Amino acid sequence: MLGTLLTLLGLAALVVCGVGMETVELLGPLEANLLLGLVWLLIGLLGLAAFTSTPPASRGYLRGAGLLFGLLTLGGLASGPLFGLLPLGGALPLHAVAALVAVWGGFRLRPNRATCPDTNMGAPNPER
After folding, report:
1. Predicted confidence band at 105 (pLDDT cuts at 50, 70, 90)?
2. Most exposed among 16, 55, 79, 108, judged by the fewest C-beta atoms under 10 Å?
């Protein structure tokens, strides 16, 4: 779900911004530019790829996305665009919620035996 949302936001930002780096309002107070749209699109496409792969890859994606969105949230607290390129202030709530959801999913979700019968669910491996 996170990957789909970010892919759609990234595509919308690319369509609205075109090839310019100027900041535009995407959805209400949500500001974006070409670079931020590319960031969202890349993270979203990686999320869609992780969704179709194994549970360790999905958890790894969620942990990495949580860290990245946490950093984007902290960058949005600064006045002005981050490094003069990323307008993060308007996307602060989106990045904060995405960071919380991704970190929760990356560290709390566990595969179940019905969907991943080969996963030992953290049990010790007797073959070692």
Report:
1. confident
2. 79
User: What's the domain range around 80?
Assistant: 2-108
Return the bridge partners of 30, or none: 27
| Rounded CA separation 99/63 (Å) | 9
| Neighbouring C-beta atoms of residue 55, cutoff 10 Å | 16
> For residues 25 and 81, which has the higher predicted lDDT (pLDDT)?
25
Per-residue pLDDT tens over the stretch 46-66: 989 888 887 788 888 889 999
| pTM of the predicted structure, to 2 decimals | 0.72
Pick from 55, 51, 50, 12: nearest CA to 34: 12
User: Which structure tokens are listed for 93?
Assistant: 């709530």
Per the structure, the count of domains in the chain is: 1
Indicate whether 114 belongs to any domain.
no
Q: How confident is the model at residue 73 (pLDDT cuts 50, 70, 90)?
A: confident
Domain-located, residue 126: no
